Amino acid sequence: RMGMQTGEQRQAARNERSRNTNISARTLFYCGTLRSGQKIEHDGDVIIAGHVHTGAEVYAKGNVVILGRLKGIVHAGCSGDESVSASIRAFESGQIRIGGKVGMIENNSDIWGKSVLVTVSGNEVLMTEWPVI
Fold it and tell me: CA nearest 89: which of 121, 120, 133?
């Protein structure tokens, strides 16, 4: 229903993709919570419908969307791409990485625990609060 393929791919589509090496990576949709010690690494965008606990890590060459609480580490654009973003429903992590930049935040910050969009502008990591819905 979200426009993402779930389940098994058709054999013809799988064979066609293996012949064409220029097709970009698809979005990885992970439904569940990442616990300490768990890691996701993906060559495209990552969407997590769940929480990312302390000690869990997400590395994506594309954008990252977390529809839960982030307490672990997220590195969007881990190949060095600083044009990507990270969208987090409840930001509760001490740091976030976009491309080659690291954003640090303290737990007494006004943005702690809120929904944020994280981007890079110039030489800075920007954390913008989402509007309350």
Answer: 133
In tens, the pLDDT along 92-105 reads 999 999 999 999 99
Angle at 110 between CA 106 and CA 73, to 5 degrees: 45
Q: pLDDT grade, residue 132 (50/70/90)?
A: low
Whether 110 and 72 have beta carbons less than 8 Å apart is answered as no
Closest CA to 6 of 24, 28, 39: 28
Q: Which two structure tokens, joined as six digits, stand for 65?
A: 């969307």
The pTM for the full model equals 0.79
DSSP codes joined into one string, 59-125: EESS-EEEEEEE-SEEEETTTS--S--EEEEEE--SEEEETTEEEE--TTSTTTTS-EEEEEETTEE
67 close to 47: Cβ distance less than 8 angstroms = yes
